[in-house]
Design a protein that fits this description.
The protein has 18 helices and 27 strands. It is an alpha/beta fold. The strands form 6 sheets. Strands 8-9-7-10-11-6-12 form a 7-stranded parallel sheet, sandwiched between helices. A 6-stranded parallel sheet has the order 13-22-21-14-20-19, with helices on both faces. Strands 2-1-4-3-5 form a 5-stranded antiparallel sheet. Helix 1 runs antiparallel to helix 7.
Length: 661
């Protein structure tokens, strides 16, 4: 049979296109090109790059409009599993395939010739505790399609457990992906794994790496030289050679959700899909059980490797401080007198303290004293945070005010600060304890890899006396002399209008209790102080009366009554307009059309009314959003999915949003 001289190549250009249209375009080639290859193409008057998704012999004569592939940049740049995963992410999260592909393609650099490294096998013998060994055997014996759940606090030695898991996979020439929610956790994890595994078999991936380092790790994974990949959610898109196991550490953490750019994916859901595509085992591990995981365990979607542990009421391990009494005593410091005394005692004993605050900066936010408007960033629209030098900066972009900022609404020069931030707490602590080594951990201090490495070095060496930070410090396991934990302002979480607020605070406090409990030899001296203006709130009443199991079941019951996750999935649709009325009208029109498509017997499908339009300064537009809820155990109907794909490119669709406010 005579073969065709030309081939029809289906290419997805690396370009943001309307999601309602086909992302593939046909090109010609005289030679067959492998699927997943990165190619150069002519797209209109532009020269672009694209990825090959299909190939077939061209029957008959080539159409005059069909162009030839310009060149092949990298053959088989993406694996078959990566191609399937790009399709899934694009469809599931309503994102252009071209934009999704950019997450799967690292910035290419010229390969530098290096001397060959000789392999140095580690001579350290891993001897697991009897309980850890039994848990590992149980996981290895599980079926490929099952999702296993493990309580990290039941392990005697977490690093040895996962190192042995990696070695078991390496003997079968399989790779292990270990995900963490924060970049700050990777240096310590890499150092610990290096004690048991050859360094050349460890690959690290995160967004702060230099392009050359990132590309080198990418290639090491691609050619199967890395047996373990330590990564943030970015690691899900790597070109695995033979992926055998995926481990998601701190699986309840919100850091796995990408919320500020498209595709707005949830790393845990992507991990489940990747495990299915790769026929790999998936292990979810955490020291704090999330409500979503509890729901899936009850539905037998997750398999428990060890029985759930019921903790006694949290209030028994906490000291609740009423900040209203502190203000009555003329103490306006972020630190109560009881916390100051506890810090002094901890310093005298030569031990370590951790101060948790939910917000970075000097204060939670600032309000103009004249017009009462909140001081916001003119670029992003986010709340501006005051700094120690008297200026205000945006935590979402690089914007910073001058030394004498004025209110953009009325021109007034005086602002009133509300709430506490990490910088204000740091200033207060340094003033009270001038000789102490104080380290602040937040989005500002952890922006570069150098700062992250310094933080790891200082904590490992025990040089930090008082650690101050936001949620990223909750996962630090290198504070070996930690005996005091202080929560500066519990109300910053509870007062936020979020249906997950109680769950988040409960998880944070549970982690505090477990961290102090695991400190060997000093548990009797460990102290946890929680400061609040509302000790009489429902939350504090519950943690005083209910154990961990009863508390979780109470939240589950409330979520079911209100039809909130995990009993439903959320889709937030944000419509935009040049004026407030235009944005609101667009959202109302969109909502009316969408409501007609909901199942008639679909009382379980709920569409909220559009919110009042708010101004998005960065886009110079107004935004009005509405929320669709549908059952977790049902697939979104195709007619609704098709309708959502036809939305304007300026509108934003967020599947499984962290918040719908």
């Amino acid at each position: 049979m005579k073969t065709s001289e030309l081939y029809r190549i289906e290419v997805a250009p690396l370009l943001i296109l309307p999601i309602g249209k086909s992302p593939l375009f046909s090109y010609l080639s005289k030679e067959p090109i492998a699927l997943g290859s990165l190619v150069a193409i002519s797209f209109g008057k532009r020269s672009l790059e694209g990825v090959v998704y299909g190939i077939a012999p061209l029957p008959g004569k080539a159409p005059t409009w069909m162009k030839f592939i310009s060149s092949v940049i990298d053959e088989k740049s993406l694996t078959e599993n990566q191609l399937a995963l790009t399709r899934y992410v694009s469809e599931e999260y309503f994102t252009s395939l071209g934009k999704t592909l950019k997450h799967f393609l690292p910035k290419r650099v010229i390969r530098k010739k290096k001397q060959k490294n000789t392999r140095h096998d580690k001579k350290v013998v891993l001897r697991l505790h009897k309980n850890d060994s039994a848990l590992l055997k149980k996981f290895l014996a599980s079926k490929r399609e099952t999702v296993s759940y493990l309580n990290l606090y039941t392990l005697q030695n977490q690093v040895q457990f996962f190192s042995q898991l990696v070695k078991k996979g390496a003997t079968k020439h399989e790779q292990t992906l270990i995900l963490v929610p924060e970049i700050a956790l990777l240096p310590s994890l890499e150092a610990l794994f290096s004690e048991y595994l050859p360094k050349e078999e460890i690959a690290v991936l995160h967004s702060k790496l230099a392009p050359s380092v990132s590309f080198e790790a990418w290639e090491k994974i691609r050619f199967g030289k890395a047996s373990v990949i330590l990564a943030t959610r970015q690691g899900l898109f790597a070109p695995f050679h033979t992926l055998g196991t995926i481990v998601v550490l701190e699986e309840q953490d919100e850091g796995y959700k990408q919320w500020n750019m498209s595709p707005r994916y949830d790393g845990r859901r992507i991990a489940r899909k990747l495990a299915l595509l790769s026929q790999a085992k998936l292990l979810l591990a955490s020291g704090v059980l999330g409500i979503d995981s509890l729901y899936r365990i009850k539905k037998k979607e997750y398999v428990l490797l060890d029985p759930l542990v019921t903790l006694p009421p949290l209030a028994q391990s906490l000291r609740i401080v009423n900040l209203r009494l502190e203000r009555f005593r003329k103490n306006y410091s972020p630190l109560s007198q009881e916390l100051i005394t506890a810090l002094e005692e901890t310093r005298i004993r030569g031990e370590q303290a951790l101060l948790y605050i939910h917000r970075q900066g000097m204060n939670a936010f600032s309000v103009c004293e004249n017009c009462k408007n909140i001081f916001r960033c003119p670029k992003s629209g986010h709340i501006l945070s005051s700094t120690q030098d008297g200026t205000f900066r945006c935590l979402s972009c690089s914007y910073k005010t001058g030394s004498f900022p004025s209110c953009p609404h009325c021109g007034h020069l005086t602002f009133r600060s509300v709430g506490f931030g990490t910088e204000r707490v740091e200033r207060e602590v340094k003033k009270l304890f001038p000789g102490a080594c104080v380290f602040r951990v937040d989005g500002t201090t952890m922006r570069t890899e150098k700062n992250i490495q310094k933080f790891f070095t200082d904590t490992s060496a025990g040089r930090i006396d008082i650690l101050i930070g936001t949620q990223m410090i909750l996962k630090v396991h290198t504070l070996l002399k930690l005996t005091l934990i202080g929560m500066i302002d519990a109300d910053s979480l509870l007062s936020f209008p979020d249906f997950r607020a109680d769950e988040k605070l409960f998880q944070i406090l549970t982690r505090f209790v477990e961290q102090t409990r695991r400190q060997t030899g000093i548990s009797s001296k460990a102290k946890i102080i929680v400061q609040t203006f509302h000790p009489e709130s429902t939350f504090f009443q519950r943690i005083e009366a209910l154990d961990s199991e009863a508390f979780s079941h109470k939240i589950l019951t409330e979520r079911e009554d209100l039809f909130y996750p995990p009993f439903s999935r959320l889709i937030s649709i944000a419509c935009h307009g040049k004026t407030e009325q235009e944005a609101l009208t667009t959202a109302q029109t969109f909502g009316e059309a969408l409501r007609k498509l909901l199942p008639k017997k679909g009382s379980r499908y709920r569409l909220g009314i559009p919110e009042s339009a708010k101004r998005i300064v960065s886009k110079k537009l107004f935004e009005s959003s509405l929320l669709l809820r549908f059952p977790t155990d049902e697939t979104l109907p195709e007619n609704i999915r098709s309708f959502l794909k036809k939305t304007d490119m300026s509108d934003t669709i967020d599947v499984d949003p962290l918040s719908f406010l």
